[in-house]
Design a protein that fits this description.
- The structure is a single chain.
- The protein is mainly alpha-helical.
- It is globular and about 55 Å long.
- The mean pLDDT is 88.
Length: 166
């Protein structure tokens, strides 16, 4: 039951932050995608560099580096994109926000320490979420792209009206 709450928090907290702070859900989703790329392609080099300066085990350093590389871009997006969504866009922001929360859980759980990771991965809820991984990524990417195009177009139109361009 405790690990089910941890999984729920990992999925819901990012979505609540995105909606509550009125962060553009597409930016939050894409920041997790960036974090995932950093984990895949940069974590090893950073771990090697940090391991050369410390006597701690490489595995522990690697876990923290990977987790930081995933979470820091998301936190920066939350910090810098606060109050970027307003009006009627708040409702359409719910889909990218939900996709962000689900993606956050999918990406963070495998990076957690084994004693936390294993019990979560034995939950039926985790298995269902993991089976929906492709759908979460495709839906999140699609919602985010549409939302970015929708919000960008509105901004461009407002700028044209301000400057008298048609």
């Amino acid at each position: 039951m405790t690990y089910l709450l941890v999984l729920a928090a990992l999925a819901l907290l990012p979505a609540v932050l995105v909606m509550g702070l009125r962060v553009n859900g597409a930016v939050a989703f894409m920041s997790l995608c960036l974090g995932s790329l950093l984990v895949a392609y940069v974590a090893g080099d950073i771990t090697d560099i940090l391991s050369s300066f410390t006597a701690h085990g490489t595995l522990a350093i690697s876990q923290w580096v990977r987790l930081a590389l995933l979470v820091v871009p998301f936190l920066l997006a939350i910090l810098f994109a606060r109050r970027s969504v307003g009006g009627s866009k708040k409702v359409t922001n719910a889909l990218p926000a939900l996709a962000t929360g689900l993606l956050f859980a999918l990406l963070v759980v495998p990076l957690l320490p084994a004693d936390v990771q294993r019990p979560i991965q034995h939950l039926e809820t985790w298995r269902q979420l993991n089976n929906l991984q492709t759908a979460v990524i495709l839906a999140g990417a699609s919602f985010s792209l549409v939302f970015l195009l929708f919000t960008h177009r509105g901004h461009h139109d407002e700028e044209s009206k301000k400057h008298g361009k048609h």
